[in-house]
Every structure is written in C-alpha cells, then in structure tokens.
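Instructor's aside before we start: the two examples that follow are unrelated to each other. I chose them only because their records fit on one page, so don't look for a connection. First example below.
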Amino acid sequence: MNPEWQDLDFIDLVSERHLQLREITGKLWNETSNIYISNSEWYILSRIYKKKPTIALVTKSVNISRQATHKFIKKLEAKGLVAISSLENNKKDKCIQLTPLGEECYEKSEFLKAGIEQQIAAKIGTDKLELLREILTSDWGLGDD
C-alpha cells in the first residue's frame, strides 16, 4: 500500500484509488492508441455507449458544467468518435451517438479495464474483488443510491 494513504479517511482513500485507476487506464490507452481521450471525454462516451440520448440528457447525467460538456462533445465529434444529429420532430434538441470508431475505442478501453480488473483479482483474490463490487453497488443510504 502507498504509505501516504495509510492515514486517509475512507472517502479520501476511495478518491485516491479512483484517481490511480483512471491514471492507469489512461496510460494504457495512450500506449495503445494514437487518439487521445481525456477522462471527461471517457465519462461522456460511457453515457452514450449503445444509446442515442439528447445532448441535454447527457449534460444532465454528467457532473460537468453545461459549457464544458458541449466543449468535450465538440472535441469528440472532431475526433470522429461521436455523431450529432437533429431530432425529427424537434429542431432544438440534438441527439448524440458513438460512431463505429467511437464504439471500437470504447470497447477497446473496456478490454483494457478488464485486464486491470484481472490483475487486481489476481492480487487480492476474486472473492474480495466481488465483495468490493457488491459493497460499491449496494445502497449506502445516502439519498442517491
């Protein structure tokens, strides 16, 4: 364990592990791809994978400002990862979906994350990893569960 984490409270420890995992997945992605995708862009991609939501719905579902979300979506579109289209009966709202390249990148990232998960399971045990998953997905009584 990182000695700096020894005295952290639960919330800060979860945050540090999250940052560590995001850093590792980003590094792995960048080593295997020539398309740079930021953590915020991955977050948006995860919200639209296998869906065709409106941009407004995506904006509401991510914890990023509306302006920043629109900026990230424009970057994703410029990289050829998402396509934006108008709704048939609504000129104001626009839909967003992954392009074939976007789906390929997302699925490749999922494969890389599965490899990291296997490494963790090999180190701490599959039973502990499953218990951790169960704990993280259970209702903690915090209101948004």
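Example two begins here.
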Amino acid sequence: MNNHGMTLIVKTVTRITVWMILLYGFYIILHGHLTPGGGFAGGVIIALAFLNVLLAYGRKFTQEWLNIHLLETVESLSALLFVVMGVIGVVIGGSFLANFLSKGALFHLVSAGTILPLNIIIGFKVAMSLFLVVWVLAGVKMSKGGEA
C-alpha cells in the first residue's frame, strides 16, 4: 500500500466517498438548468473530489490514479468547445451563444436548448482548472528566502 498521504482511516473513507462526490458533481451539472447549481457549482464539486484523493493519498498516488495530461487536454478543449458553441450561435442565431437547439419540454432534462451543453462544458472547464491549479501549487517547493 501507499505510505504517503494520510492515515488508513482517511484513505478508506476517501476511497468510498470520492465516487459519491463525483456522482453528485455530475448531478449538479446535469440538473443546473432545472435546479440551483450548474456548470460552475458542479465543476467545483468534481475538483474537490480529486483534491480529496490528493490530500488523502499524496501526490504520487494521485498522479498514477489520474492522467494529468488528459486533464490538461480536457481543460483546454473545454475552452475551445465553449468558443465553438458561441460561434455556432453567431452563425445560426445571430449572436454569440445564441440558442440553436430545441428548447424541449418544460421541466425535462433536455429542456433548455444550449444551456445543458454549456453547463457540461463549463463544469469540465471549472473542475479541471481548479484541480490543476491546486496540483501545480502542491508541486511548488519554496526555499527559505521565499523564492520559488
């Protein structure tokens, strides 16, 4: 087992709860147009699930468990995809981020046009960005003089 990170109790609780936290984050993203929440709130929850693993198990285990390069790619592609959605809105609807999808039936999961796809894109952007910022800061070693 991994000797880095926190105690066995914290690791065990993290191993059980991280999946529930991720599921809740995805729920908040997918239901953000129907209930309070959305892409930003769900993305923060997903980032905190990854941060929970980092704190409980340490940096080495987290690097093996998560593909950091994939997270960086998803973070970059989500920004690009947001701009693409905006440009499609310009082309089809006449303004940036104009709704170009059917609005669907009221109070159903697919009922808000482009809001649901934008919530998903924003959720991935926020989750990856927040976690990667913490990841980079966790790897910085400070010398005695306070210089990096």
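Residues 8-139 form one domain.
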